């Protein structure tokens, strides 16, 4: 088989597996566990992983699902990873974009092609237009969009919340869920909007923004009335479940360029 | 007496009263209560307030302490406020800067001069340099400062938290305390830095950023190691108490231009 999925947490790895045969690789110490993996790897033993992927005939890879930053256990490093370590440790201290660019470069240097989830499952990508419901808080969406555009060059801000002309949340390292929980706790019942977009420099192959039905439930719990996505740049995991959650929670969903 | 303090919550109104005789005005329905006020006013009866201030010989005003956005009870409006109402309600839906600019313009149109807390108490303003301790996480401070600079034109972001090159918090409507509590809950023990600065368009006469000893305690609780202020643009309420809190909580404090 020519494909492998480097799988993190969440629904995406499973949805990608539905696209056709692929080797499922899971990393120890990452959320999502290692159950059902074809290969269990360690970040400290990349040399071994590269060899195993080649032995299985893998030529293209997709990094899919949430992963977290970890340290490196020096006691178990293989030679290849030891060479890469200074680079990797420096990248761990930078923004998500910089870290992922480095990881992509390492796999590409080994001859693997990196594919995005949207390459294997284009049907998961949010298309432009109304996705559920019609009412759109245009002013608040535009305000949040402008704030995200200003932050883009600083490698921060993949989502923001605005209500009645005010900013109520700007996503930081902790992610969209943490921001929504903050809004729920500190500004309940605002009726505002979540805007979620890719950052300008974001590599969609490895770090495409995504929402799932649990995101919609959190948006409703935060007292928001709508979600605006960047068309072509955000995954729905999966589209039917997300739309059903919008209906259940009375949340409007749409996408703009 | 020629001075009046339109007092909100916190220590600032009391610190201003120490600067010399001033009429203490408190608004009903605002945090801080109305105890000890010379005049208790209502936002719906500005005509009455203007008349009372003139009767007391007030020529200059300082708006001091935290206030919150409120609605207007139409049943008790006086004629002057009724005329201003469309304007005031439109301003309530905008950012802090726009709202305060409008309020300042209304008082100035009535012939009152608006003074800043720093005019009456220049000794409360953070000077450039080390204020407590020496260790400064320069990289993180620079990162947070760049993010705030990018947000300035969007009338959001008076404070931000960075640690190890990552953004952990960006202040929104809920304020610095809520952001620090968010960081404490979602990214404990980071050792990062709080940067607090005025927004580019911010009118320091009515909305000067401020920290007090309780801010320092919150910074420590959020697992941060330092606070960087904008010299000349942030009030210490009051300087001795803030420095004592820094010593008690092992927090470094400094100010840069």
Compile the SSE list and pairings.
Two copies of one chain form a homodimer.
Chain A: E1 3-7, H1 12-17, E2 23-27, E3 39-41, H2 46-55, E4 60-64, H3 79-92, H4 96-109, E5 113-114, H5 117-120, E6 129-132, H6 138-151, E7 159-163, E8 166-170, H7 176-186, E9 193-196, E10 210-211, H8 213-221, E11 226-230, E12 235-236, H9 239-249, E13 252-256
Parallel strand pairs in A: 1-2, 1-4, 2-3, 4-5, 9-11, 10-12, 11-13
Antiparallel strand pairs in A: 6-13, 7-8, 7-9
Q: Largest interface: which pair? A: A-B, 27 and 27 residues
The total count of strands of chain A amounts to 13
CATH topology of the largest domain in chain A: Cytidine Deaminase, domain 2
By CATH, the architecture of the largest domain in chain A is named 3-Layer(aba) Sandwich
Give a short account of the largest sheet of chain A: 6 strands, mixed
Secondary-structure class of chain A: alpha/beta
Order of helices and strands of chain A: EHEEHEHHEHEHEEHEEHEEHE
Poorly predicted sequence stretches spanning 5 or more consecutive residues of chain A: none
Percent of residues in β-strands of chain A: 15-25%
In terms of quaternary structure, what is this?
Answer: homodimer
Task: Give the overall average pLDDT of chain A.
Answer: 92
- The strand line-up of the biggest sheet of chain A is 6-13-11-9-7-8
Q: How many distinct folded domains of chain A?
A: 2
CATH top level of the largest domain in chain A is Alpha Beta
> What is the rounded distance between the termini of chain A?
36 Å
Globally, the shape of chain A reads globular
The Rg value of chain A, from CA coordinates, equals: 19 Å
User: Considering the protein shown, what is the CATH homologous superfamily of the largest domain in chain A?
Assistant: LpxI C-terminal catalytic domain
Helix content of chain A: 25-40%
SS field, number of helical segments of chain A = 9
């Amino acid at each position: 088989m020519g494909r492998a999925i480097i799988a993190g947490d969440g629904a995406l790895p499973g949805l990608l597996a539905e696209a056709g045969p692929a080797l499922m690789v899971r990393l120890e110490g990452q959320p999502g566990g290692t159950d059902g993996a074809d290969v269990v790897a360690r970040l400290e033993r990349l040399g071994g992983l590269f060899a195993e992927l080649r032995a299985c005939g893998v030529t293209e890879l997709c990094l899919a699902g949430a992963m977290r930053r970890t340290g490196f256990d020096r006691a178990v490093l293989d030679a290849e990873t030891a060479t890469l370590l200074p680079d990797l440790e420096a990248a761990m201290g930078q923004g998500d974009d910089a870290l992922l660019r480095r990881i992509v470069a390492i796999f590409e240097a080994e001859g693997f092609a990196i594919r995005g989830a949207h390459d294997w499952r284009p049907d998961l990508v949010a298309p432009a237009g109304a996705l559920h419901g019609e009412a759109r808080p245009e002013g608040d969406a535009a305000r949040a969009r402008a704030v995200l555009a200003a932050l883009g060059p600083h490698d921060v801000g993949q989502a923001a919340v605005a209500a009645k002309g005010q900013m109520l949340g700007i996503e930081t390292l902790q992610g969209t869920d943490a921001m929504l929980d903050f809004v729920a706790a500190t500004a309940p019942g605002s009726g505002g909007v979540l805007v979620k977009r890719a950052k300008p420099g974001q590599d969609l192959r490895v770090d495409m923004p995504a929402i799932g039905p649990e995101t919609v439930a959190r948006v409703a719990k935060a007292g928001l009335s709508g979600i605006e996505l960047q068309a072509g740049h955000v995954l729905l995991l999966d589209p039917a479940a997300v739309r059903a959650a919008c209906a259940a929670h009375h949340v409007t969903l749409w996408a703009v360029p």
